[in-house]
Design a protein that fits this description.
By secondary structure, the chain is α+β, with helices and mostly antiparallel strands. It folds into two domains: 2-75, RimP-like superfamily, N-terminal (GMP Synthetase, Chain A, domain 3, 2-Layer Sandwich); 82-152, SH3 type barrels. It contains five helices and nine strands, in the order αββαββαβββββαα. The strands form two sheets. It has a six-stranded antiparallel beta sheet. Strands 1-2-3 form a three-stranded mixed beta sheet. A hairpin with a 5-residue loop joins β6 (106-114) and β7. α1 (2-11) packs across α2. The longest helix is centred in the first third of the chain and has 18 residues, at 46-63. The protein starts with a helix and ends with a helix.
């Protein structure tokens, strides 16, 4: 099944993270998880996922791997995806992460870098008196990583102002043209 989907996903400029099949009553559910390639910064938006869904469905229908009806669910990894592969850490650069270490300890900090050549993760971790210190954690010492959701950072993001009357964005040009 992965062999049928992967070329379509690559053509869409995306990375095929995972494909699973499970039963839901009498039907099968095919779950496809997409992500951006390693060299693309940012997050995968739902419009892009929606655009990729139809070609994925067409590719699956052409090979009919389940020989019958199925439900197709296409999604992104989400913020709660465990960071288990080197590419997951590369995609999480700039994010606040918590690492569980093989020795039982944990490290939390902003992930700055990670590379295949030098398999270590570079984090900015809070130090004494608010100072930030650099800590390098060898990837082999990491049991699991998790991106930490930062609500304060999301609230501080540069968002468009909302019109208080109807909740739409303030676009006076469009309103003036309609009048």
């Amino acid at each position: 099944m992965r062999e049928a989907i992967e070329p379509v996903v690559v053509d869409a400029g995306l990375h095929l993270e995972d494909v699973t099949v499970s039963r839901a009553g009498a039907r099968s559910v095919v779950r496809v998880v997409l992500d951006l390639p390693d060299d693309v910064e940012g997050n995968l938006d739902l419009d892009t996922v929606a655009e990729a869904t139809h070609p994925i469905s067409t590719a699956l229908d052409a090979v009919d791997p389940l020989h019958g009806a199925y439900t197709l669910e296409v999604s992104t990894p989400g913020t709660d995806r465990p960071l288990t592969e080197p590419r997951h850490f590369r995609r999480a650069r700039g994010r606040l992460v918590r690492l569980q270490l093989a020795d039982g300890g944990t490290v939390e900090g902003r992930l700055r870098a990670g590379s295949e050549v030098d398999p270590g993760l570079v984090l900015d971790v809070p130090g004494t008196r608010g100072a930030v210190t650099e800590r390098v954690v060898p990837l082999v010492d990491v049991v699991r990583g998790q991106v930490q959701v930062e609500l304060k950072r999301a609230l501080e993001a540069d968002l468009p102002e909302l019109d208080e009357t109807d909740g739409s964005t303030d676009d006076t040009t469009a309103r003036d043209e309609e009048a």
